[in-house]
Each structure stands twice: as structure tokens, then as C-alpha cells.
Fold this sequence. Notes:
Blueprint: H1 3-6, E1 11-12, E2 21-22, E3 27-38, H2 46-52, E4 60-71
Antiparallel strand pairs: 1-2, 3-4
Amino acid sequence: MDKFEALNLIKVEGETVQVPAVAQLPLTIEAQVIYKQDQDPQAIESEILDRYYPKGDFHTAYTAKITAAYILEE
Length: 74
């Protein structure tokens, strides 16, 4: 599903990244990922795994460097 299309959002070309900004959300922060790490299921207690991750949909943590911050003007 194209979420932009489904929500009638207008894409605006980013200044420093290849990911679009959203015209309806004028405060735009662009960033470059410098590190990412998948969550380690073996480091999570089984009670928490069963309760919060029954489908095994674990998180990925990202660290990024902000490359631009601006307000989209109409």
C-alpha cells in the first residue's frame, strides 16, 4: 500500500536525502543513518517476549546525524 496515496499526502523532494518530505507537515528534519542495531530477542525476558512480541516483530534502533532542518513554505 502506498501510504502517501492512501492519506492524500503530497511529496516534496528532500534537500539532503532521497526520501521525500511531506507538504502537509511543514517542519522537516532530514537525517543520515550512521548506525543501526536490531533488537536481540535473546536479551529479552520470556514474559516480555510473550506479552509484547507474540509475532516476533522486534525493533531496530537507529542513530542518525541531522543533515537539514527547515520549514516547508507554500
